[in-house]
């Protein structure tokens, strides 16, 4: 049976984000059975989702997203690998903590347990999205905000094209929830192998926060590792040079999956 790998997108994206470059084909060629589901209320073409914001999007919670993905995981005949970007990385860590995965990779991952960074980009973005005065109105991702925060290492033209192809509007509540119980993980327990990847130029999740997240795991018998890629922004999976990240992940998995039984 082929090992299964599930890709989980982050906020302001859907499964189309993995289509910017052939992530699925890369791992399928290595013998993986690949799936990239969308969160609830995120299915469809991003341009249509921006033009017609799904009813109820503003009330979507982290718990709803997590249990949607968890349900997909539980349908696997064996424990899968999960690769998550941004908030998808936090979901990957939560699934790992539950013992549901063979291995997990978090790319520019949101950190659990109220870990914060005194980084202007991080604080600016977090405060803007979680603004309590905005209530349950979805946060609308504009081309300007996308270039400033997601695709800051791309030219404006490249960033606008990526926005058009992949960006969606988002629930503010999902990010608010990471500061509560739904954003907590017991980092003292044993866990399957974990790789966390930071992006040097990330304006949303600073690499220093991802590094701190990786080093916060306490069980010395469990493998947790941090890698950082220079010159990359938060849109690291959709930027030119994506092959370097994909190859680093696949090589890491090759070295660890042979030692992990489902």
From TrEMBL:
Keyword Ribonucleoprotein recorded: no
Pfam family, one: Abhydrolase_6
Keyword terms, alphabetized: Hydrolase
Entry annotated with the keyword Transmembrane: no
Span of domain AB hydrolase-1: 5-238
The organism of origin for this protein: Luteolibacter soli
The protein's name: Alpha/beta hydrolase
A GO term, aspect molecular function: hydrolase activity
Gene3D superfamilies according to UniProt: alpha/beta hydrolase
Organism domain of life: Bacteria
């Amino acid at each position: 049976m082929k090992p299964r790998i599930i890709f989980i997108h982050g906020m302001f994206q859907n499964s189309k984000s993995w289509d910017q470059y052939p992530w699925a084909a890369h791992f399928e060629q290595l013998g993986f059975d690949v799936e990239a589901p969308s969160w609830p209320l995120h299915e469809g073409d991003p341009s249509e989702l921006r033009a017609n914001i799904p009813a109820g999007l503003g009330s979507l919670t982290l718990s709803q997203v997590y249990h949607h993905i968890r349900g997909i995981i539980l349908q696997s005949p064996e424990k899968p690998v999960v690769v998550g970007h941004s908030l998808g990385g936090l979901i990957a860590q939560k699934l790992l903590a539950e013992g549901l995965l063979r291995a997990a990779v978090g790319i520019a991952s949101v950190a659990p347990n109220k870990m914060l960074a005194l980084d202007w980009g991080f604080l600016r973005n977090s405060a803007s999205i979680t603004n309590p005065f905005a209530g349950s109105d979805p946060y609308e991702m504009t081309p300007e905000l996308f270039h400033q925060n997601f695709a800051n290492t791309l030219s404006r033209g490249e960033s606008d094209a990526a926005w058009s192809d992949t960006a969606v509007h988002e629930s503010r509540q999902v990010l608010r929830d990471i500061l509560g119980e739904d954003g907590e993980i017991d980092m003292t327990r044993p866990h399957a192998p974990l790789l966390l990847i930071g992006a040097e130029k990330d304006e949303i999740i600073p690499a220093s926060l991802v590094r701190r997240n990786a080093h916060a795991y306490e069980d010395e018998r469990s493998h947790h590792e941090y890698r950082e890629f220079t010159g990359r922004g938060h849109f690291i999976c959709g930027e030119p040079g994506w092959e370097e990240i994909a190859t680093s992940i696949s090589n890491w998995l090759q070295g660890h999956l042979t030692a992990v039984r489902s």
